[in-house]
Structure formats: C-alpha cells, structure tokens
Amino acid sequence: MTHEGDAMPVVPRKPRVGLLPMYISLYDKTNPSARGGFTGFIRDVAERLEAEDIGVVQSGICCVDAEFRSAAALFEKESVDAVVTLHLAYSPSEEALPSLASTSLPLLMLDTTMDYSYGRDVAPARLMYNHGIHGVQDLASLLRRHGRHYEIVAGHLEHSTVIRRAAGIIRAFVAADEFMNSRVLRVGERFAGMGDFHVPADVLCSAFGITVVQAGVQELSPHLAAVAESAVRDEMKENAALFDVQLPEDTHRASVLAGMALRSFISKHHANALSVNFLAATEVFPMPFLEVSKGMARGVGYAGEGDVLTAALVGAFIRAYGEATFTEIFCPDWQGNALFLSHMGEINPSVAAAKPMLLQKNFPYTDAPDPAYIACAVRAGPATLANLAPCPGDTFRLIASRVDVLDDTEREDLKQSVRAWVEPPVPVADFLETYSFLGGTHHSALVIGEHLESLAAFARRAGMDFRVIE
Questions:
Q1: What is the pLDDT of residues 331-353, one digit of tens each?
Q2: The domain 16-178 is classified under which CATH number: 3.40.50.300, 2.170.130.20, 3.40.50.10940, 3.40.50.1220?
Q3: Predicted pLDDT of residue 168
Q4: For the chain, what are the domain ranges?
C-alpha cells in the first residue's frame, strides 16, 4: 500500500506456475476432434491465474509418460514455483506419476470442469468435457500412496473462489521456498534469557536450510565510513517524501547513516532477513529502527532481540504476500475484547493506515544516541496473525488466527507509537489461553488479509504442524 506523496514499494514476488493439462490418448483414437474442444477452457484457466498476478508457463496437453516428462523438464528449465495440474478428462495416473513424483516442484491439483451445471437435463455429449474429476481422484490416490505432497482446490472457475484459492496456495509455495532458503543476519547476540524463539543455528539449518550469519556491531565500521554524504542527503529527502518528519535533523542524519551502513552490510552477506538486539546499539551505531522498517518494505524480514526464526518467517511472508510486518502481542483489552500489538520502533510502513510520522525515540538502554523511528497504525480490516513456535524434538508449529484490525486511536500521545488493536475470533481470554497452550512465542508476524488456507499449505510444505485459533 502507498500513501499520497510517497514511493514505498510493496514487494511480493510474482509467482510463476507450470500449467499441465492432462488427457488420455484413447480419446485421440476414438474421438479425435474432442481435444480441440478444450482449447478455450485451458486458455480461460491461464487467463484467470494471470488475473490473480500468477505467471503461467503452459505445456502442451499431456497423455503419456514421454509427454509428461517433457512438460516437467520445461517447467524445471523455466524455474516455475509450482506445477498446476488440470484434468481435461480422465487421465491414467501411472502415465504422470514418474514425472510428478521425481520433480521437486510443489504440486497443486486444480479440480474443475468446464460446465457449471451437470443436472438431470444435461446433453449426453457434455460428459466428454466434464468428467476430469475421477482422473483427479486416480492421481491423488496414487500420489498419496507414494508419499508425494500435493495440495488441491476444487470448484467451478466462474462460480466459486477456486482460482483465488489456488493463487493463495501458490503464494504459500513461494513463502515456503523463501523461508526454507532464508539467510538471516543477526547483529549482536540474542537477548539474554529470552528463550522462547531461540533455536540453535544448526537446528534451523537441518530443519529448514536456514543460514544464520552472526555479526558484531564493530563489523559495520567500514560500512559506516564508506557511506557518502550525498547519499545520506538523498535518503533524507526520500524520507521527507515518505514520512511526516518531526525530529531533529542531526538525529535523522545519524539514523540514516547507520541505516545505510546496515543496508550495505546486509547486501555484503546476501541476507534476506535481519535481527538486531537493541542492546548492541552504540554511540556510533544508533538502533536502526528506521532502516529495519524500510527494509521490511523492500522485502527484508525482521524480528527484534536476535530472533532469527521470526525474522525468516516475516521475510518469507513479505516476499510472498506483500503486506506483512513483525509484531508482538503486548496488552489485552479485556473490556473491548481486543489485543494491542506493538513493538519498540519497528513496523513495515507498507501496512500503515496513513502516512507514518518520523520521530525521535527516547533510548535509555545503552549509550547510543536517541534514534529515529516511524510511528503509525496498521490499517483497519481483516488480517492474519501468525506465530512460529519451536516444539519438542526440534519440530515446529505454526499458529494462526484471523483477526480484525480495528480503527486507530484518537489519542495524540498514543499516535507516537507503533500500534494496532486487533479483535480475535474468540474472546480474548480464550485466545490467550489457547495461544499459550499451543506454545506460541511472544514474537509474531501480522499479514494483511485473510490467509488461513494459504498458511496451512505453507506449513505443510515446510513440514510444520499447523493450528488455527478460531
């Protein structure tokens, strides 16, 4: 989301899928003209996926093993994010199984047919164009037997949300791929004694392929020295367009300098997520609240206090869904049946309800100068709160709940904070009991929009347990 006068990007990666139309060669022998009747249907599916901002790479219609192998090779060459199967008619599963079982690409079965109505007055000739569902059943059964993971959505193209749901699951595949290829930079040690989110780096690597790069603040010194004064001035001008600037110029400048050095350091380490322990801030490196917030808008994941696990999750969600941010459940509003979400000074400005203010933060925790930070509310509407909790035996659980972000406060003093009031789908007491019974940590991600089905697919793809509070 952007606001008048700003240029803050929203950065979801556009997914691309391989569309795999499936058919049976027997029909080419007994009814050769029937194949041509599916051309418009295939085109319709592709166009509807494109309308959901999903790129489509099409194979030809596949009937036999060699054709499926050729299609799989094409999709792998094109580096698509998933394969979407489309049963035009019955298609023998053993023809497709070798290719679909051997590729590492995620698999989504689109279970749909051409006609909306197939009632008691249907013309018999329409059977040819509407019986693909038992081909889906054949293939799904065989995939399940062979332990090949797949997702499935069913419904009519025009009279259901099946394509929108398919797009959500495709984005879940993107999120899982982004998460499982995260490279997280941690500046400073994790906050001592804060154990809920802590997972050893070797466990994150073995469980998800996540790489953790540990660094000290002193390693940023050459990057601080390399930042040009002209670049600092340009960044300050950009901030003046993006934010309502209400802080001293020297504070702004020092924070921009630290932020640009951190940006260079992130680039050097090829990181796509970041965690900074605020206790690592120094006289020459103020806590980079401003940069980590702007970084989230560019797709760099973030979580506070050395929490690399949640940082990787937030980054994956931003790059897959666009509008997501790091957050924390701070206070219960028992009377109003709401939860107050906040953090010290970090929020993705892409989720802001209005143009954020750029302010100076009182920072008594170290000898670092007071840093710049942005203050804003999350815009009202549906959202999804998600938490990744470590569990026994180096397993993980994704806890999610649909919430409604409420309208912002009218109090001017509260408007100087990072904030959101959200209403959960159950009474606050029940939510909090269930959340902690499931082992939820105190660091979370908030994703704008309703994504429960998509997050369930994300969890399955990443090998996590998934629980919904509803």
A1: 999 999 999 999 999 999 999 99
A2: 3.40.50.10940
A3: 98
A4: 16-178, 181-468
E-strand stretches of 188-262: 211-215, 244-245
Beta strand 418-423 with 395-405: parallel, antiparallel or unpaired?
antiparallel
Could you tell me if 394 and 207 are in contact, meaning their C-beta atoms sit under 8 angstroms apart?
A: yes
What distance in Å separates the CA atoms of residue 407 and residue 381, rounded to the nearest whole number? Answer: 8
Closest CA to 423 of 400, 404, 444: 404
3-state secondary structure 366-421: CCCCCCEEEEEEECCEEEEEEEEEEEHHHEEEEEEEEEEECCCCCCCCHHHCEEEE
What tokens appear for 457 in the block? 């697919």
Name the β-bridge partners of 19: 58, 84
188-224 confidence digits (pLDDT tens): 999 999 999 999 999 999 999 999 999 999 999 999 9
d(CA 122, CA 358): 64
Q: How many CB atoms lie within 10 A of CB 264?
A: 16
Give the predicted TM-score (pTM) of the model: 0.95
d(CA 432, CA 424): 10
**CATH architecture, domain defined by 181-468:** Alpha-Beta Barrel (3.20)
Residue whose pair of structure tokens reads 């569902």 in the numeric block: 133
DSSP 8-state secondary structure symbol assigned to residue 240 = H
pLDDT, mean over the chain: 96
- Residue 266 tokens read as 């992130």
Please report, as a single letter, which amino acid is at residue 206. S
CB 465 within 8 Å of CB 438 = no
Beta strands in 287-351 (DSSP E): 301-304, 324-333, 338-342
Neighbours of 248 (CB within 10 A): 11
Lookup: tokens for 33: 């003209």
- Give the pLDDT confidence score for residue 12 in this predicted structure: 87
Burial 219-228 (b: 16+ CB within 10 A, else e): ebeebbeebe
Residue 8 has what pLDDT?
54
> Taking the alpha carbons of 95, 101, 106, 109 in that order, is the dihedral positive or negative?
positive
